[in-house]
Amino acid sequence: MKKKIILSFILIGSMLVSSLCYANSELPKVRAKGAVLIEQESGRVLYEKNGYEPLAMASTTKIMTCILAIEKGNLLDVVTISKRASSAPPVKLHLKVGEKQRLGDLLYALMLQSDNDAAVAVAEHIAGSVEAFCEQMTEKAKEIGAEHTSFKTPNGLDAEGHYASAYDMTLIGAYALKNPEFVKIITTATIQIPTIPTEGSHTYGLQNKNRFFYSYEGANGIKTGFTNKAGHCFVGAAYKNDMQLIGAALGSGWGKAGKTQKYTDVINMMNYGFKYYKKYTLIEPQRNIAKVAIEKALIESLSLDCDETIILPLTEVEKANVYIKKVVPTQLVAPVHKRDIIGEVQVICEGVTLAKVPLLASEEVPKATLLDYIKKWIKGND
After folding, report:
1. pLDDT tens digits, residue range 263-303?
2. 114 is catalytic
3. Are 360 and 305 in contact (CB under 8 A)?
4. By the 8 A CB rule, do 14 and 354 touch?
5. Cβ within 8 Å of residue 142, ≥6 positions away
6. I need a labelling partner for 270 at 20 to 30 A (CA). Which of 97, 149, 173, 336 fits?
7. How far is the C-alpha of 298 from the C-alpha of 264, rounded, in Å?
């Protein structure tokens, strides 16, 4: 049976941070309880502070609410506001019971102004209930690799069992940023959303409250948050120097100081990432990259191919110390199927494997029979 490649690119060096090559004095100053900075394409962690500890994440929750609604819903759907949605606590749009809104418009209220009533209305429309939607949110998180995440509310209000790690929030943010509709929403500065035309209908004026979006060069989102339990939180994203970085800071403080510190924490991480890291192409697709001896076959060796590309952000010090290692068996026994995974190519720096991709059999190699050997011998003696 032909083997399948489960992942074409496997990054396993996510615990490696830049402290590997730089003195602590050069690391960003971050006050958050948990913080992580990643590069989107590779998923590599560039900075981490308690990044894998589950913490309350407040309204950064709404990143998952939004992307899940985009994927599962129709943005032109009409949503009827329930009593439960209408009674959600501030921050809220003050939606009325029975009011009708388009799903897509509610997502603007959700992400630009963090309206809690919009989050509940979206959840009920997509899944039938808040509880069912939160289960879907958690399932989606696990699907994209966010293993330390559990959703109990769609708006991020404090609840028992509602948590995520800073690393998981960067994963969720990186995933959401791949969706053009999500990006369109979070990069909108202002918008007017009308209620569905009925007696007494009106329009809501929305403004993007994300200060990072307006003040940081290359910024493209994403979401702020605050609750008494979580403190001030922020997941931010910026694109510069051919790199899309996503930073998450959970628990940056409380009060006026914390409100500013959440941005400062992410900005400090971003400045660090853009200053010290540059993307390099380390592995490209290549035929006959290695050979392996093979027994019980009419050929003596089998060529291996690499079909993948590895592009990683590296510091100058890491670039000088990185090397490529081929890991292959000393010998194979036929039969071997074409495209079977035979070995791997690893990217290694300072003894840490940063990434690896599979090496594949270049051809089908059947097990040789006695008749095959006789035919080969006769042909060789013609």
Report:
1. 999 999 999 999 999 999 999 999 999 999 999 999 999 99
2. yes
3. yes
4. no
5. 149
6. 149
7. 65
